[in-house]
Fold:
Amino acid sequence: MFNKVIVANRGAVAARVLRALNEMRIHAVALYSEVDAGAPYLAMASETYAIGPAPARESYLNQALIIDILKKSHADGLHPGYGFLSENAAFAQKVVDAGARFIGPSPKWIDAMGHKTRARELAAQYGMPMAQGSPVLPMDNDAILKAARGIGYPVLVKPAGGGGGIGMLPAKDEAQLLETVERSRSMASRGFGNAEVYLEKLFERPRHVEFQVLGDQHGNAAHLFERDCSTQRRNQKVIEEAPGPLIARDKARETADHIAGIIKKLGYDNIGTVEMLLGADGSFNFLEMNTRLQVEHGVTEEVTGVDLVKAQIRSAAGEKLADILPSKIEVNGHSIQARVYAEDPKNFFPSPGKLNVFRPPQDKSVRVETGFAEGRDVTPHYDPMIAKVIVHAETRAAAIDKLITALEAFEIQGLKHNIPAVLTILRSEPFRAGDVHTGLIPEVMKRK
Structure:
């Protein structure tokens, strides 16, 4: 097992990983930028290091400085959290080269799954269910038009080298396509330093369902069922739940078993999430694979009883899955997570400011993950998420009601936040009925 681990992140995920390390009695090292000095989770670490100014490129993305601290602190592991450097294969390799373990999959898997079209090709070779798509688009306009005709309109133009919804743009016909490709390339170049884009078939009212997997270094792999992450704004998740509503349990298990079999054949060796689109016809289609801990991992923990952060750490330390996971994993009840953002609830634009009042719900059965405390500033330098509120109940209806009660009790003053919008969605008839899809939020908010 590890002796000392650096947590190369901030906010809610840093707090979450630090908690796991403390419970495992592993010495924890926390990093912080100038604006994160004094953050409440830093008290959970046995060592802390300042890593520079607020801009991420000068602090949390400063690979050379983080590797220098890794060596200086004599840490034998590094947990990247999510975001920042968590899916950077070159950085993961630098951690390994420095004599420590990167707590995540091997750099080769981060690299293989990080390029979306190569990941699709690899997954297809092993029998992953796949919607129609194209290779990386050439610069030739005629070839682009031909590729789209082969898929059939509408199509979605997507960056090959990044995620988070950045650069994902729809094109309903040929008149839109070429301009859309250029816009997507420009956004991809600015966002990821890689202008490559490709096409996917665009489904009407699709659901975004992902399957949690875990591998070890001994050729074993397992799944922990699915999460539904369809309730999104601007292609970014807001409400996530497990299990997926209105998905037949035998269909969910069959798909999860098939995915776990593919992951085992590949030799994938740590935590990962296989993201799928669920079409109206009930078919699952591979989107991409995230090679890290997910923001929404908590709902899977709630329904399976498995601590995914500890499991990830134990796998990276070389333990076998048979020793990490229960012999039988089942779904118990229903769990829902709402992301609380510092943003205008009318248009979802970021709204940084001071948390003059920040009082999470006091119900001890409600799980709140946050890196903030009252009086702290939410800066424009990072993602505007300020908390995750996670509930568990015997039924989905009971979980919805419990989450509504928790969010109503969450007191936040000093900046705009999205709780009013989340409550509107949770109370809406389509959401309560389980009729979720990626366009649900704009539909619900338009009716308001």
Notes: The mean pLDDT is 96.
